[in-house]
Amino acid sequence: MNQYDVYQLDHLKVVVLQHPFVQTPTVVVAPLLTTEQVVRPLTGLMPAVGLNGTTMVIDLPALAAIKRTLLRKCIANLDKDRLTIVSAMDLLFSGF
User: What mean pLDDT is predicted for residues 31-49?
Assistant: First the structure.
């Protein structure tokens, strides 16, 4: 499992935010939403990323820790959007 890997859960996609160096029973993820699912995107906190030709929004304020065992099959990786994701996490946790 790598940082920024995308997994499909039963009802939604999630992106792994936790670095693989941190081996814990849980892993920090954030949901990926379609642009239609987002009523009012929070500028800077909900970065838009491309996933298989579709624009998705990472809902960073809704991040959570889930059991690592729930993440079975990686469907994509968003490493190309690393700087955008890290900037949003900096805003969420540091305010800038």
Answer: 91
86: three-class secondary structure by DSSP? helix
pTM of the model: 0.93
E strand map for the chain:
5-8, 13-16, 26-34, 48-51, 54-58, 64-67, 74-77
Side-chain-side CA neighbours of 81 within 13 Å: the count stands at 23
How many CB atoms are located within 10 Å of the residue 51 CB? 18
Q: Is 52 left (phi over 0), alpha (psi -120 to 50) or beta?
A: left
Residue 24 has a pLDDT of 93
